[in-house]
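Protocol step 6 of 9: fold each sequence in the batch and record its structure tokens directly after the sequence line. For illustration, a two-sequence batch is reproduced in full.

Sequence one:
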Amino acid sequence: MASDNNQEWTQDDCVNFESAREILSGLIGFRVKWIRYEREQIQPKTTDITKWEKEKATFIEERRRLNVLEQDNVSRIQRVYSTELKRLMEYND
């Protein structure tokens, strides 16, 4: 298939792209959950909230810049972040 700028991408490229987006969305979701929980505490740990807010912002920016045609970056996101997301999902089951 061709993109708007006539560069070709495959079905596999699209699947990998969507997988990377899901990984980032999952990590964003965990940060949102942790931030909300911590803010509800009688004495919230502001250092943790600040750390998670920064991490969340990083993931949001990575997701915003993600491009199906940049498969090296898509692969990097899958490689770097998938292990963390799997660990978090297993821990929360």
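Sequence two, same batch, same settings:
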Amino acid sequence: MIEILILAVSLALAYSVVVFGMLGATFGFGALKPGFVVKRFKIGTGYKRIHSVAWLLLVILAGFVAVATEVLLQGGYSWAVCVLLAGLLLAGLWRNKLEARQRGTVHQVLMSVATIVGVGVGFYLVHVLVSR
């Protein structure tokens, strides 16, 4: 029971990092250069690239937060929290059909790969730092 609670707390913290980070990044980019984000009702190509980099960095941070929380709270399932976090982020990414259509299939696949790689890097960073 406690392991499930630790897993839920880890997932909630990590998911919050990605969601609120992307919200802040999107609003920040939009406030700084509205024409850079949207041109003629379409998402700009440059913004898509910046968005992908921001997504990757936030997913790495979220993977780190999830695994670090799991390790600090002495849960034994750091691999499971990574799998669940990646699944949760991928489900959210692909379920939003309107944004998926605006971004395009190539960008969706790129962000999916970035999600898996980012969570894996976060997992790796925690275990490298903890083992030293």
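Proceed to step 7 once all outputs are recorded. Observation for sequence two: The mean pLDDT is 88.
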